[in-house]
Amino acid sequence: EEANRKRNDSLNKALAKAQLAKDHAAHKLEELRVGEEWSELLKNSVNRDKEKMGEFWEEVKKRLLKRFGSLGQAVRSAETAGDGIVSFLKFSDLLRAVNMPLNQIVLRAIFDKAALGERTMPVDVFKALLMDKTIRAMRFVMEGWNGKQARVKAHVRTFLRHLAESDEANRNQAIDRFQRKLTVPFIKGFWKTILKRLGKSRSQPVMMSRDAFAEMLENPEDLRLQAHEVIYMTRVYDRVSAQKMSLGIFHPSLGISVGHFIVGLTMVSPVSKPREKMALFFEAFDNDYDKCLLYHEIHEMCRCVCALRPVAEESSRSARDETFQAELSAQEGQRTYECLRWYLQRSGKVEGGVVNFPELWSALHVQPEVLHALLPGLVRIRWVAQVLEYEWEAEQAAEEVAKAKAAEEAAKASANTSSFKKTARQSVAGEPRPASRDTVASRETVTPPMVKYSSQSILNFRRTRASPMAAVLVAGKPSVNDEFKTSVTERFRLQLKGLADIRLAELTTGLWVADQVIEDLTGGDALGGERRPVRPGALCFVAAVVFCCCCCWCCCCCWLLLIVVDC
């Protein structure tokens, strides 16, 4: 018995080995057949397009992984003496090892195309060819993930913006938070970011247009700004440019100097120490990084500060004569410069007309009236909440586009719902009567249409309450709050009606079949028989469905009323 058992085991092992060899031979023949098909296909140069070559390299990659276990091992076996290149002979041997016998002409054409006509092919290029499909798949996944993250960030920014501008109290608090953010480190970092994104340095005269400034603020998270704070920063730029243009020292096509914008941003900042503000002014005009200014640079700094002082002081903007205001600012800057230069020359501490910041600060410190003429007091920039005329026009255009799109989607959803109900009735009326009510499989399944609905769509209302000044700026416009309530109410009603129609269609699909069963049960007179009573279970089911629909409609009406009252 022991001998028979051993003999049977050895026989089974031999049979298994023979079967394995047979399967391996059959698999090899199959691979050779596929390789010959690729050879015949690629003989025609027209078939060597990007799509076909991608499939070919994917097939080669699968065979290399099966043969060598990893692409790294396969590439190392194809290298010529480990020098990082793949020759034509090694490439041919590698394909032959994975049962891919190609015609020599086809093989040479494929190698020349991959090596860009060179005699050898770098290993990195060979790896890229093998991993092309995987890389494209990973890129597609990453692009989808990045797009989803961008949409989430956009929703968050929109929500925070509407929350910050929901009423006057929240709007004032948001402006105060933005102004408190304008510290010396923040302004310096913002200045460096502007120069970096514009590709300039402080040693160059950098002019910044409004379009370039708006493009630079596309990613507010990188600048540590919220979405509504980006709007405030843009309005600060508009105020500085408007002030410079009113003085005749600015042209809209050229833009304003980055240094002048930093000066204007510093003047509206809540920095309480005059020395820190003057240090920022000094650094804004120090273009050569030597921590010194010449007399003409000090003159330019004084004129710029005096010209931009009305940006922070609302009282100085009462002068409507632009020529007089320009002359007044120029005279104030000239007088301040003369006072500083007189002290610096009389003190004897300045040599060669080069002034450093400690020397300039000592001249300002002993002349407090000059320092007060340069630096305004601490003010609140509540004027950044005012909507400018071009912003209102752009917002109105965006609202019209959104309204037209919403109406089109609502009409499309209504048409889909009507066609669905018609199709459902026809399908139920035309189908054969089931033998019993339990035969669910015999009923035709009706798939309700997909309606685009999202809880985020409620947040897509227009930014009307965020800008109460807009109703004052544009006379004759309808009330902003009335437009807001009407828009939200109409949109919610359309969404609610669409969802109710779909739910009603889903519920009544079963009722139509139940009505047919009731007609079968009560149709005794038509068949010449005795009329049978209606089943009470069907009537109870109908009553329960009607009661549930009424309850749902009442709840939705209450919810709509609460939303309107809250708004």
From TrEMBL:
<keyword id="KW-0472">Membrane</keyword>
<keyword id="KW-1133">Transmembrane helix</keyword>
<keyword id="KW-0812">Transmembrane</keyword>
<dbReference type="InterPro" id="IPR011992">
    <property type="entry name" value="EF-hand-dom_pair"/>
</dbReference>
<protein>
    <recommendedName>
        <fullName>EF-hand domain-containing protein</fullName>
    </recommendedName>
</protein>
<feature type="region of interest" description="Disordered">
    <location>
        <begin position="412"/>
        <end position="446"/>
    </location>
</feature>
<feature type="transmembrane region" description="Helical">
    <location>
        <begin position="538"/>
        <end position="565"/>
    </location>
</feature>
